[in-house]
């Protein structure tokens, strides 16, 4: 029960910070640029989670990372061999692309210990659609400690192309 209350409180804070960040991005995004968005980060449980999106040539380049910012090692548990996932949605919220679609993952529980200052990173590219507003949602699928431990909420970047 304590985990649920903690996750709800963390989620509420995350949503408030995300909303403020997105408002700032909307007010400070120059019009006429190829793409507008630098990235978002969220820190909790002694970990820093980051999501960034860039437009390179005709591809959206999505980078995700998790770093141990604590002074002690942190164990992460995964239900399968999949560690990350990414969705790209159109302005109506419809999923246009999911990184994991069509991929197979080992159905095995795995554990990874991150030393202080150690980082895990992921990068993928997707051919950018035409001009418009898109939402990139990044998922880190690890649980803190063991499979019953908390998991971070998805990170979201809003991207304007054209």
Which tags fit this structure?
single chain, 162 residues, alpha+beta, Immunoglobulin-like, four-stranded antiparallel sheet, 17% helix
Task: Provide structural commentary.
The protein has about 160 residues and is of the alpha+beta class. It is about 15% helix and about 45% strand. A 5-stranded antiparallel sheet has the order 1-12-10-6-7, with helices on one face. The chain has a 4-stranded antiparallel sheet with strand order 2-3-4-9. The chain starts with a helix and ends with a strand.
Identify the CATH class: Mainly Beta
DSSP strand content: over 45%
From the coordinates shown, what is the CATH architecture?
A: Sandwich
Q: Can you count the beta strands?
A: 12
Strand order within the widest sheet? 1-12-10-6-7
* N- and C-termini, Cα separation: 46 Å
Structural class designation? alpha+beta
Largest sheet: 5 strands, antiparallel
Any idea what the shape is? globular
Number of helices: 1
Q: Look up the CATH topology.
A: Immunoglobulin-like
CATH superfamily: Intracellular proteinase inhibitor BsuPI
Rounded average pLDDT: 82
Poorly predicted runs are 3-36
Q: How many independent structural domains?
A: 1
**Rg, Cα atoms, Å:** 16 Å
Fraction of residues in helix: 10-25%
